[in-house]
Amino acid sequence: MAWPPSARAQLGGILLALFGWVSSCVTTIVPFWKNLNLDLNELEVWNVGLWHACVIQDEGATECKAYDSLLALPLVFRLARILMIAANGLGFLAFFLSLWGMDCLKMSSKNTELKRQLGVAGGVFFCLSGIVTLVPVSWVAYNTVQEFWDQTVPEIVPRWEFGDALFLGWFAGFFLLVGGLLFICSTCWQETPEPSQLLPTYPRREAPNQPRLPNRHQYTATKNADLVI
């Protein structure tokens, strides 16, 4: 059976949002938010993320170390941790709400409005997840630019640059926003089933029992029998 256009649009929206959510989770974990190329030592590349820092050597060996203390991190990294975890949680909740709100999931006519509300809520949570993902990624990028062009730092000091995780985070937030908006629009355009126009039926009423009249021939035969006696 062919799906209606609204169901296909919902499927496209949830797939886009799901791709964005997975990318957001990967962005949270990987240690590639910022990288540092040392001109004096080109054999090592430093990378930092929200949870640990890594040194990649020219031979291909990688050594990572977790941060010793949360309070020792810069303020932007501490808030980025909280916001990225919140974004991943919102996306996880939005995915299950969107599944219950999909048009291909058949429910009784009484729950049609509930299914539409769940779908809209799932799309809204996807959009919120995308916005919350873009905030820390853009904030870290802004601080990196400010530090890179800081005139008070001597030119001989190495500068931090954008890591691959920042670009992945931007793509993740974009896909979450587009997928959430597409899911909301397709859910609002769902066709509402019209109530049946059948005439009301009433229970059949039986006629009351009437007294049974005696048979005419039976009455005549009885009367003749009395005359013979």
Pick out its properties.
single chain, alpha+beta, 5-stranded antiparallel sheet, 5 helices, 5 strands, 55% helix, disordered C terminus
Q: Explain this structure to me?
A:
It is a single chain. It contains five helices and five strands, in the order αββββααβαα. The chain has helices at about 5-30, 75-100, 110-150, 165-190, 215-229; strands at about 35, 45-50, 50-55, 60-65, 160. The protein has a five-stranded antiparallel sheet. A hairpin with a 6-residue loop joins strand 1 (about 35) and strand 2 (about 45-50). Helix 1 packs antiparallel against helix 2 and helix 2 (about 75-100) packs antiparallel against helix 3. The longest helix has about 35 residues, at about 110-150. The chain is elongated.
